Amino acid sequence: WTATRDKGCKLPLPKGSMGFPIIGETCHWFFQGAAFHASRRQKYGNVFKTHLLGRPLIRVTGAENVRKLLMGEHSLVTVDWPQSTSTLLGPNSLANSIGDIHRKRRKIFAKVFSHESLESYLPKIQQVIQETLRVWSSNPEPINVYRESQRLSFQMAVRVLLGFRVSEEEMHCLFCTFQEFVENVFSLPIDLPFTGYRKGIRARDSLQKSIEKAIREKPLHTQGKDYADALDVFLKSAKENNADLTMQELKESTIELIFAAFATTASASTSLIMQLLRHPAVLEKLREELRNCGLLQDGLCQGELRPDTIINLKYLDCVIKEVLRLFAPVSGGYRIATQTFELDGVQVPKGWSVMYSIRDTHDTSAVFKDVEAFDPDRFSAERSEDREGRFHYLPFGGGVRSCLGKQLATLFLKLLAVELAGGSRFELATRTFPRLISVPVVHPTDGLRVKFFGLD
Ligand code: HEM
C-alpha cells in the first residue's frame, strides 16, 4: 500500500494522498467521480499520486504530459489495467497484450474497422437505429435514455458487428449478463462470494458460453469478398495474417469488442441527446444542414445515407466532436512505468501505475475558448481550436493504443444524430436536467428521462 520512490532519482515523488490501507481512496473516487480528480488536481497539480482499486497510482493531466506518456508506450510505459479488468478481459485481449503481440493483434483487428468494412455496416447500423427510435417513439412512457442507449449499442455490436442471430429473449439475457460484467470490470480484486469481482467472473463465464454457442451456430462468410459482418472480416483477416485463432481467443476478442463499444457509445449517445435538448438552436442548425444536402424533406429524413454524404455534413461533424470534448466517455487510460522517468518536475518511479486523464485534459486545456461552453463551431474550418497539437483533444486516446473503433463510433453517433434531427420529436420528461456521474463512463444520475414522439 505504501509506495516507495526510486532512490536513484533526485526528483521528488508527486504530491498527493494514499488514503486508507488496502482500499486507499477508492471509496472517495467512487462516490465523488469527476470531482475526486478535479479536487486533487487543484490541490496537488497536474501530476499527483493516489491509491485506487488496490494499488498506488499517479494521475496525469495536461496535453504535454499526456503526449510524453502516450508517445512513450513500450519505452517509458506499458499497458496496465486494474487486476479485475485484466482478469475479466482475459490474457488474449488487446488490453492485456504488449509489444509485438499487441501489434500483431491490432493488425488483425484493423480490417474490421477499415473504410470498406464501415461502408458495409452502414445500412445495417442505420436500420438498427431507426428501429430503436420507432420503439422509443411508440412507448407512451418516457425513455431512460442511458439504459436504452446501452441496449442500442449492444444490439449494434451483437447483431451488426458479430452477426449473431439470437432471439429477442436470448438478446435480453445476454444484455443483462453483459451489464453485470461491465459493472464489475473495475472492482476490488477480492474473490469472495457476493463481491463485485466474483459477480464479474460469473458473468464472464456465462457470456463466454453463450458466445461460443452463437459462434458455432453462425453461418460464416470467410470466402470471397462477400463478408456479412465484422466477425467474418476478423476471421478472414486472421487467416491472411497466418494467425489461426483458438475458440478461447475468439471468445475473448468478441467480449472485448462488445465491451469497448458498449458503455462508451451509450455514454456518447446519451450526451448527444442531452445536448440537442439543451441547445435547440444547435438542433435547428443541424436540420438546416440536412435540408441543404437534400436529406430532409417535409421534416423527414429521406432514404439511405451514403458514406460520402456523411463526410460532407460539416456541422454534424462539429457537433459530435464537441459532445466528445465536453463529455468524453472514457476518463483516461491505465499504464505502468517500465523505467523511472521525469514528468512535470517530479519522478514517476519504475513499477508505479500511471493513469493519463482525457476529461481533465479537455477541461483544463487553454486552446479551447470558454472551455465549459457547448460550442460546436469551435471545430469549424474557420476556428478549428483543436489544431494546436492533437493531445489537447483526445476522446479516443492516442499513440499505438488509440481507439480502434473510433471511425465506427463516430459513424454511429452521426447516424443517430441524423435520425434524431430528421425523424424524431423529443422532450425532456423531468423538470431539470440531471446531474452527471463519471464512473465507469460519464452518464446522467437518472439515466436521462426523455419522451419521444412519432412524427404526425
Ligand atoms: C481503445 C475511447 C468506441 C474499440 C480506446 C481508448 C479510448 C477509447 C480512449 C484508449 C484507451 C487507452 O489508452 O488505454 C472510445 C470512445 C468510444 C469508443 C470514446 C465511443 C464514443 C469504440 C468502439 C469500438 C472500440 C465502438 C469497437 C467496436 C476499441 C479497442 C480499443 C479501444 C479495441 C483498444 C485498442 C488497443 O489497445 O490497441 N477507446 N472508444 N471503441 N477502443 Fe474505443
From TrEMBL:
Pfam family, one: p450
Cellular component, GO annotation: endoplasmic reticulum membrane
Membrane topology label: Peripheral membrane protein
Keywords: Endoplasmic reticulum, Heme, Iron, Lipid metabolism, Membrane, Metal-binding, Microsome, Monooxygenase, Oxidoreductase
GO molecular function: heme binding; iron ion binding; monooxygenase activity; oxidoreductase activity, acting on paired donors, with incorporation or reduction of molecular oxygen
Keyword Zinc: no
Catalytic activity: all-trans-retinoate + reduced [NADPH--hemoprotein reductase] + O2 = all-trans-4-hydroxyretinoate + oxidized [NADPH--hemoprotein reductase] + H2O + H(+); all-trans-retinoate + reduced [NADPH--hemoprotein reductase] + O2 = all-trans-18-hydroxyretinoate + oxidized [NADPH--hemoprotein reductase] + H2O + H(+)
Keyword match Lipid biosynthesis: no
GO biological process: retinoic acid catabolic process; sterol metabolic process
Residues the entry annotates as binding heme: 403
Location in the cell: Endoplasmic reticulum membrane; Microsome membrane
Primary localization: endoplasmic reticulum
Names of required cofactors: heme
Similarity comment text for this entry: Belongs to the cytochrome P450 family.
UniProt name for this protein: Cytochrome P450 26B1
Lineage: Eukaryota, Metazoa, Chordata, Craniata, Vertebrata
